[in-house]
Amino acid sequence: MKLLSLRIALAVAAALAGSAADWAAYRGPNHDGTSSERIATSWPVSGPKVLWKVPSQAGFSSFAVGDERCFVQELREVDGAVQESLVARSAKDGKELWVRGLGTMKTGDGGDDGAGGNKGGDGPRSSPAVAGKLVYTVSAKLVVRAFDVASGKEAWKRDLVKEHAGRNISWQNAQSPVVEDGRLFVAGGGPGESLLALDAKTGATLWKIGDEKMTHATAVPAKIHGVRQIVWFVQSGLVSTDPASGRELWKFAFPYKVSTAASPVVSGDIVYCSAGYGVGAAAARITKADGNWTATEIYRFAGNKPLANHWSTPVLKDGHLYGMFQFKEYGSGPVKAVDIATGAVKWEKGGFGPGHVVLTRSGVLALDDDGELVLFEAQPGAYKELARAKVLEGKCWTTPVVSGGRVFARSTKEAVCLEVTPR
């Protein structure tokens, strides 16, 4: 009996370790920027141990990690042309396994690569996603592809512009593929087919609906009132659809100007959304009665203060948002704690700029735009910093990834893997 209990305990531990090790999509396994892992809360003066560091060329794609491989989109010379590319590496040592070109993209709008630069820079803005034996990409030009994770062989390809009358956006596509229950969700089609679900194995169209114009924001799968749904952030505002059929559940009007890039955040029956360029933030309460859904505004703040998320999506814990609430405050923009139900700011701490955050069981992990990695407590009483280290050179507008006791992070110049296992 004792031996059986030990085997069960080991099996459970192995299963938990395996689930914690993968960060298979943009903003993690739950699509909300959260990790179930604990990480070290005290770091050496020199920072966490560097397991590997490699050059990583241009753009703001973050890593997808699965089955001890990590994938990212960079600018590379492939087949004689500099183009957006999917790069596969060993998660253990950073060794390059294979590279596949995704096509050329608009370039030439970049500035300097330091945090003080206010230009986007050249390179991919979308992040790959891993599911099973395939890794998925959405290119800057709205071409969706699936590749075998081991060999890099292309499994299927869909061109939304050619096949679905796709309409791209200024600075080109930045949304990342969302894969769940055998479906890949992507925006960018034309009239009558602007929101799509594709079969993740074959690329076949499962459904297509709407005449919504896309933004740079990635859709979010969420459960509201016990019902799984896909919440899209489009130019008309928020649109929720049934994942299986594409049926529209509810809508919430929200202004669009220039670019919307942060994803919506769901907290029970509340959905928060925000954008820069003077648009501001709002939250809606979602209700369901007799099969009918309604989105009712709770609050709305216009302008870049107090609440604006340029492209940094905040994370949620116990009814509070934590993230980089700012617009073009390069190198100086604050992180804030915000009550999602009221929009009230509980505290703020400057000096971060427009980077990104993820939530771990040890606190909020922030990568600021100048390459500093910072861990602080996720609590609304006051800002309490736990650890800080300079880990990257170059501009960091990219989401850090927590996977198997490691942090994977990158800038426009390099990528690093750090050991953060608790001692």
The first-to-last residue Cα distance is: 32 Å
- Our count of helices gives 2
**Overall form:** globular
Q: Provide the spatial order of strands within the biggest beta sheet.
A: 1-32-31-30
Low-confidence spans = 1-19, 109-116
Q: Report the β-strand fraction as a percent range.
A: 35-45%
Number of strands: 32
Keywords:
single chain, four-stranded antiparallel β-sheet, 423 residues, globular, mainly beta
Describe what this molecule looks like in 3D.
The protein has helices at 2-21, 160-164, and strands spanning 49-55, 64-66, 69-78, 81-90, 96-103, 129-131, 134-138, 143-148, 154-159, 178-180, 183-187, 195-199, 205-209, 220-224, 227-234, 237-241, 248-253, 265-267, 270-275, 280-289, 292-301, 315-317, 320-324, 335-339, 345-349, 356-360, 363-367, 372-376, 385-390, 401-403, 406-410, 414-419. The chain is mainly β. A 4-stranded antiparallel β-sheet has the order 1-32-31-30, with no helix packed on it. A hairpin with a 6-residue loop joins β16 and β17 (248-253). The longest helix is centred in the N-terminal third of the chain and has 20 residues, at 2-21.
Overview in brief:
The chain is built from two helices and 32 strands. A hairpin with a 3-residue loop joins strand 31 and strand 32.
What secondary-structure arrangement, pairings included, does this model have?
Blueprint: H1 2-21, E1 49-55, E2 64-66, E3 69-78, E4 81-90, E5 96-103, E6 129-131, E7 134-138, E8 143-148, E9 154-159, H2 160-164, E10 178-180, E11 183-187, E12 195-199, E13 205-209, E14 220-224, E15 227-234, E16 237-241, E17 248-253, E18 265-267, E19 270-275, E20 280-289, E21 292-301, E22 315-317, E23 320-324, E24 335-339, E25 345-349, E26 356-360, E27 363-367, E28 372-376, E29 385-390, E30 401-403, E31 406-410, E32 414-419
Antiparallel strand pairs: 1-32, 2-3, 3-4, 4-5, 6-7, 7-8, 8-9, 10-11, 11-12, 12-13, 14-15, 15-16, 16-17, 18-19, 19-20, 20-21, 22-23, 23-24, 24-25, 26-27, 27-28, 28-29, 30-31, 31-32
